Amino acid sequence: MKRYNYKAKDRKTGRVVTGSVQAESEQAAGRILVDQGYIPQKVNAEDDGFLSKFNNKVSTKARIAFTRQLATLVGAGLPLSNSLHMIAEETEDKPTKALVEEIAAQVEAGRTLHDAFAKHPEVFNKVYLSLIAAGEASGTLDVSLARLAKQQEKDANMISKIRGAMTYPIIVLLVIIVVVIFMMVQVVPQVENLYDDLGEPLPQMTQIMVGISNFVVDYWWMILLIIGFLAWFFVQFKRTDMGAKAWAKFKMNVPLFKGLFLRLYNARFARTAQMLLSAGVPMLEAMGIAGEAVNNIVFEDQIVQASTMVRSGKPLSVALKGREYIMPLLPQMAATGEQSGKIDEMLGRAAQVYEDELDERIAAISTMIEPILMVIMALMAGFIVMAILFPIYSLVSKVSA
Fold this sequence. Notes:
The protein is mainly α. It has 16 helices and three strands. The chain has a three-stranded antiparallel sheet.
């Protein structure tokens, strides 16, 4: 669909209004305006310009806000079409505004909200679509939307905390790299010239530094090419099945971050499965969607294996038990839920435990990283002092003598 700017007269008030609408064609845009009570005077396709191609993505924050607003308006008893138009009018973010207007047009054309959302898989994933379908079928669309908004907020908050924990060490490491490069390019050559002028042989450690410095100065372009090639190869390798599995396993086994990612994936699976089951989605379908929502191919494979066991008649607790990347509490809570008939509630409690532990892990990692970085900086400083300052000091001592 395209966006069309329009100028039209309101039939009731006679007032001339301007705005924009999403439609398949100019004629379709005119029909939408007529249905809304306007007499179209001018309808033109909007030209967003070249940069719009790179700035038309609906952000996670915008999707959460849209979901929360729609849940509130539908819960207040407003018709779905009116709710969508109200959100579109209040939204300032252009990509979100265009999306909501297109969804409103689809709904007014007689499609379900699920079908309208399904046309935008880049914005609404399978979890979102399944809960919307369940909410529409059961007449509890506002409840489903509220659950979605709450879950999206929790997920975004967890990801934000993890990124925050990683930002500080990355910045410090970049600073260390910049300082080392500066020393190699500016300071080390001057030390070499000083020794040459005095006719003194360079100490062995300084020779190593000089060799590295000369290589960096003479072949910096080669270093950049190698780094660029390795980055390109890594991205391409990750897109293959083997690469995706290798990267997924690495994240769940890397020292220091292993427990963090395991808890994140277990919490995400449990919380998503709890939402889907409480909305009435069948167990096997809920497991498949929740496994995919984890966004880790190795973890998803284990859920697929567990789904096969459930399909053959095994309880969920038995199917999940003993798997490498599924933490013990999850099958235990599933077993309690199977006995009490509240499996969705028990999965939600398991998710809450993992989310609380995740917060503790993030705080612990942030605390542990600081001394590790201090040790790295001390080693780098020690090496630079031994390779540069000590030789200069010994030269000064010889000259003074």
